[in-house]
Structures are given as C-alpha cells and as structure tokens.
Amino acid sequence: GAVVSQHPSWVICKSGTSVKIECRSLDFQATTMFWYRQFPKQSLMLMATSNEGSKATYEQGVEKDKFLINHASLTLSTLTVTSAHPEDSSFYICSEGQGFTDTQYFGPGTRLTVL
Amino acid sequence: KQEVTQIPAALSVPEGENLVLNCSFTDSAIYNLQWFRQDPGKGLTSLLLIQSSQREQTSGRLNASLDKSSGRSTLYIAASQPGDSATYLCAVNLQGAQKLVFGQGTRLTINP
Asked: In which residue ranges of chain B is pLDDT below 70?
C-alpha cells in the first residue's frame, strides 16, 4: 500500500499561535488528500478534501479561514491551524485517496496540544 | 445524512476466543465499506475493504461481511491474540463522493 508521512508527529504551542502540519505521499502522486480530526475517545471526522492545484473543499462546520489547506504539489498537502486555541487540541490525520472504489492510506497522525 | 454506529464500544475477551464486531450504517448508497485498526496515538491501518457488490472479504484470521440492504457489516476475528488489542473502526465510502464516514470504533482488549 501507499506510504503517507506526517510532520511533526506531535506539537505543543501557545494559544494564539499558528501551527503547520505537513502530509506527504512518499510513493504515490496523490491528486486528492483528506484531512481528519479526532478528539479523545471519538472517531475521525473529515475536515476537508485537499485537491492538488485548487482550493480545498471544507466540510460543514469547519472554518476555512482557521484551517488553511495548501496542496501545491502531488506529494505534499499542508494544514495550518491559525490562531490556535485550546479547543483545537486534537489528533490530526491525513490520508491520500486513489479513487472512488479504493482504500485511503492514512498518515500516522499529528498530536496538537494548545496551551 | 449517513451515520455509522459500532457496537459494542468496548470489548474485553480472553486470548483464543473468536469474536464479532458490529457496524451499522443508515444509508445503503455506499461505494464500499472498510475496516481499520488504530493503535493508541497512531494512525489507521486498513484491514479489509468490501466493495458494495461483495458480500465478504477474508484476510488471515479476519473475515468481514457486508449486507448493504440492511446496512450492516461484521468483522469476525478468529483465535484472538493479545496483539489484536486495538480500536477497530469501520467506515463507509459514500457513493458519489470520495468521503469516508467513520463509526465511533470498538476498543478491543485481548487478555493473555
């Protein structure tokens, strides 16, 4: 299966700062990547779909101005959490998609803690 | 709106037992259903993918079934081992949109 990496694996930041999380497809050119958020003991919730060379599509209730997504190349998508607050503390996971009928391959996740 | 429910939320069994995890979904218009494994603080590992036209898939000690008309899937784990301890998530891929909707997961503990 495809290999997806995320960086950093964990980050602690102060409230009000911005944090960038990188998602890289190591062995596949991913035109579409997905960003999920997982709060403790809850399931994954899709935040947005990242399309290479175009604007991301955000799910209802996700603030596009707060969670900036950039997918400038076929192997890299970034999620920037702007003006982070403690309620943004969560586990952020990206995945790459390979078509409607195929599986998604997930990165290892990034644990964000906002103090 | 598609909703995915997993029962039970947690399960603890002794090593060697066979067990069944349940997943139900409200809208049968799906492309496929997947079962994932998630270890604490880690990402997801795909276990089995069942296309909407299929009834079941098998991989080693794992067998997943799909009854699309009734909106149900089961994951059967044979001869459970302590290494099987993890959270198991099912997710449906919505027809017409490449989106995964996840259940809440079943936290499985296999006791030696």
From this structure: 96-98
